[in-house]
Design a protein that fits this description.
single chain; alpha+beta; eight-stranded mixed sheet; 10 strands; globular
Length: 171
């Protein structure tokens, strides 16, 4: 994987290295917004409030090993969870060291669209800014990438494609 310069939308500065491939909102929230439904959006939690039933989403990350795990390709996406699990997540810092929450992937990552809706397991740890998720469905491409990894060349192709699509690439 060849690092390069990229523009960080989060801090507004150009950086050298490899960016995290990050989605700002869950796909169902984007669809609900386009239909004029009431939603609540934030950097770590989003909800569809109307129409009922309410739907709840937690921002989370997955690290895909590159070249046998020497490096990682970070994806930032969203996991849909039950209301009770959202409450667990929001209150977990009250003494819990680690909590696992079941959910379903609510982000369509380019090139990994078959993984949308796949069951995942969120692991929330006190020291992490965002929880990490692990895909559970063996037939999904994300599960395969998570367990078998990808090559540096594949990582470069994914990053370059992502940057072209999102117009964040600085030359």
């Amino acid at each position: 994987m060849k690092p390069g310069h990229f523009y960080c939308e989060h801090c507004g500065v150009a950086h050298f290295g490899a960016p995290a491939l990050n989605l700002k909102l869950p796909d169902p929230v984007i669809e609900a917004q386009s239909r004029g439904h009431r939603v609540s959006t934030g950097s770590s939690v989003c909800q569809i409030l109307n129409p009922k039933p309410k739907r709840h989403f937690i921002k989370s990350n997955i690290e895909i090993p590159i070249d046998g795990g020497k490096k990682k390709l970070d994806y930032g996406g969203w996991v849909e969870v039950e209301h009770s699990d959202l409450m667990t997540y929001l209150n977990y810092r009250n003494g819990m060291k680690k909590v696992r929450i079941p959910g379903f992937l609510a982000s369509k990552f380019p090139g990994l669209e078959d993984s949308y809706g796949t069951p995942v397991l969120l692991t929330v740890k006190h020291e992490d800014y965002y929880p990490h998720f692990q895909p559970l469905e063996e037939s999904s491409s994300m599960y395969q990438d998570f367990h078998k990894g990808i090559s540096s060349r594949e990582a470069d192709l994914r990053i370059n494609s992502w940057l072209l699509v999102t117009h964040e690439y600085m030359r």
